């Protein structure tokens, strides 16, 4: 999980998954669909499947928390809505960027750009673009670990970028 | 839940064991609702208020119970839930989300009043990870989402499973809310 001096890996396989944990406050019924209120922008923190397992997304390495009951959703890199235009003039693009921290090498962000310039503050995105893009991303999100689902925590890192099956505990 | 003695009340003609089952169901539903654990279709039930009246001078099993189950809309529960968002701390989503601010909660409450007046119940009411409050209305694959953000704006988003979602800005205020509610009803039932 730790970076151990590894540099960022900017190359994402299109089929690579990006994991994000969802608070129980927003997703407590496994059968209930998520709503747009659970989708953030800009700079959505995610974990990439090439370097971390889905259940690792339940760890907050920065603050030392483990949200063992929270669900985890995922979106594939190829499914990230890539661009949006505003009035035919303002061009916004969105892409995954590897942003590892020392304690979490898999940490990445889905970032927004306006004319190739990183938009890191919500105030800089038009509100309608902001909401519309979140709705588009929500459609592509898949449930991976359901809320309250107990899964075994793997210690060894993934061997590929693919979604590797986890073991459910009773 | 109230327990009180009413010696004047007649014993119910319903058998005791039936009473007990009804009481247990009512208790379970109310308690599950208090913990926000009800799922569809139970979540759509109005709150049950069970007044259990036990005959005076006799013990619980010795006398039939009279169960009065009355219904009450659960708009109060929505209002309480909105108030509870005010106690959230920054980072409540395990990331950096701001809690809804007081003004946002107040505007959401105003919208809630309009919804109650129009008898349009949201399927979901939750804080938004972008800082605000979101109301979600669903019918099958159709959904309408209304977001009050901490910057003071209100947006509605209409989405089905096929076409691109549609977004529109809403004028905050009774007239804007009234028009929005009409549009949501029309969208979900057209």
Helix/strand layout:
The complex is a heterodimer of chains A (170) and B (190).
Chain A lengths: L16 E6 L21 E5 L10 E2 L4 E2 L4 E6 L6 E4 L3 E9 L8 E8 L2 E3 L7 H14 L1 E4 L25
Antiparallel strand pairs in A: 1-2, 1-5, 2-8, 3-4, 5-10, 6-7, 7-8, 8-9
Chain B lengths: L1 E4 L10 H19 L12 E8 L11 E7 L2 H11 L16 H17 L5 E5 L3 E8 L2 E8 L4 E6 L6 E4 L4 H16 L1
Parallel strand pairs in B: 1-2
Antiparallel strand pairs in B: 2-3, 4-5, 5-6, 6-7, 7-8
Jot down its keywords.
heterodimer, A: 170 residues, mainly beta, 8-stranded antiparallel β-sheet, two-stranded antiparallel ribbon, 29% strand, globular, B: 190 residues, alpha+beta, 5-stranded antiparallel β-sheet, 3-stranded mixed β-sheet, 8 strands, 26% strand, disordered N terminus
- Please write the string of helix (H) and strand (E) elements of chain B: EHEEHHEEEEEH
Q: What is the global morphology of chain A?
A: globular
- Structural category of chain A: mainly beta
Dominant shape of chain B: globular
> By helix and strand content of chain B, what is the structural category?
alpha+beta
In total, how many beta strands of chain B? 8
Main sheet of chain B: which strands, in order across?
A: 4-5-6-7-8
Radius of gyration of chain A: 16 Å
Low-pLDDT parts of chain B are 1-12, 43-72
In short:
The complex is a heterodimer of chains A (170) and B (190). Chain A is mainly β and 170 residues long.
């Amino acid at each position: 999980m730790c970076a151990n001096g590894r540099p960022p890996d900017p190359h994402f396989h299109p089929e690579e998954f990006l994991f994000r944990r969802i608070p129980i406050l927003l997703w407590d019924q496994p059968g209930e669909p998520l709503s747009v209120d659970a989708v953030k922008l800009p700079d959505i923190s995610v974990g990439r499947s090439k370097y971390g397992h889905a259940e690792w997304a339940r760890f907050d390495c920065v603050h030392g928390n483990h949200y063992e009951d929270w669900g985890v959703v995922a979106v594939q890199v190829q499914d990230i809505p890539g661009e949006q235009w505003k009035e035919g003039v303002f061009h916004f693009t969105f892409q995954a960027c590897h942003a590892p921290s020392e304690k979490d090498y898999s940490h990445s962000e889905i970032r927004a750009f306006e004319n190739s310039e990183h938009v890191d503050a919500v105030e800089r995105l038009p509100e309608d673009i902001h909401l519309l893009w979140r709705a588009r991303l929500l459609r592509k999100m898949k449930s991976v670990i359901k809320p309250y689902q107990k899964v075994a925590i793997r210690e060894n890192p993934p061997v590929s970028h693919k979604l590797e099956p986890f073991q459910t505990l009773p | 839940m109230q327990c009180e003695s009413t010696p004047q009340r007649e014993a119910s003609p319903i058998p005791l064991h039936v009473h007990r089952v009804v009481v247990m169901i009512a208790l379970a539903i109310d308690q599950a609702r208090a913990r926000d654990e009800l799922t569809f279709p139970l979540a759509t039930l109005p709150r049950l208020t069970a007044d259990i009246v036990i005959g005076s001078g006799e013990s619980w099993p010795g006398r039939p119970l009279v169960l009065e189950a009355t219904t009450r809309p659960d708009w109060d529960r929505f209002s309480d839930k909105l108030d509870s968002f005010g106690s959230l701390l920054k980072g409540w989503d395990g990331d950096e989300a701001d809690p809804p601010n007081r003004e946002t909660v107040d505007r959401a409450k105003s919208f809630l009043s309009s919804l109650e007046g129009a008898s349009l119940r949201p399927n979901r009411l939750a804080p938004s990870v972008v800082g605000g409050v979101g109301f979600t209305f669903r019918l099958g694959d159709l959904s309408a989402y209304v977001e009050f953000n901490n910057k003071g704006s209100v947006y509605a988003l209409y989405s089905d499973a096929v076409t691109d979602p549609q977004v529109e800005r809403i004028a905050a205020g009774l007239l804007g809310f009234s028009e929005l509610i009409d549009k949501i009803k029309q969208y979900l039932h057209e």
